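Task 17 of the worksheet. Students: predict the tertiary structure of the chain below and write it out as structure tokens. Keep your answer in the requested format; marks are given for formatting as well as content.
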Amino acid sequence: MPSHPTAGRLSKIEVTQHTIRYVPSQYRRHYIDIDSNFSQYLTKFSSKTRTTMRKHLKRYVEKCGMSKYFREYARPEEMDEFYTLARRVSSVSFQEKLGVGIPASDEFRLELLRLAERGLVRGYILFAFDRPAAYEFCIVNGDCLTCELCGYDPEVRHLSPGSVLVFLLLERLFTERPFRRWDFGTGDLAYKAFYSTATIQCANIYYLHRTIRNAVIVLAHSAVRGVWSCIAKSLDLAGLRVRLKKRIRQQRCRSVFTG
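Model answer:
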């Protein structure tokens, strides 16, 4: 049961007569309720932050060299173009290195088409200098739009393409209001908390038959996660984790241009 809403924190392992309930991760899921206009939504930010957002957008528009720099893709006949453009960005993004980019497969391309035929997909591309600079891939869940994958081209990161794309996407959602909510998907990241208007506690929950084999698997997995958690906390205490992440991302970006 991935990303299942919970009333509060759950015990990591709970054994009943017939099952083992394993909860390896618990986190806040962030979302935005689209129940006002865009100007009202922006009041959640300080005047300084609103000014910075608009400066980023203005700078991007001035530098991108295009009159049409933002586009939404929804119809089946648009999916091939969206996939090609999104893959182009994803292939050079750090998200690709982390294994969370747009899959390079015919299966994914066909799935996009099937979803579009049912009206269940939205794609967004931000352009710069006649090429794609950032993308958002979203799934429609009733009156909720959920972000599944996103990424940007590190070559234009000085123009804040990710932030600009989110700003334009939200402006469109609040103006046209095709959905009641925009869900940031799984992962409790700082930028999601920054934009969100609300959060909900969620957990990834596994139910397994109560067997010795399954008990060993659960305990082993929990132990490995515990070790990694201790390492991460040690790096935080030493002030090394943020620097290490920055170093890794710099190395990934450098490898894109050096091959």
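Marker's comment: The mean pLDDT is 88. Residues 212-259 form one domain.
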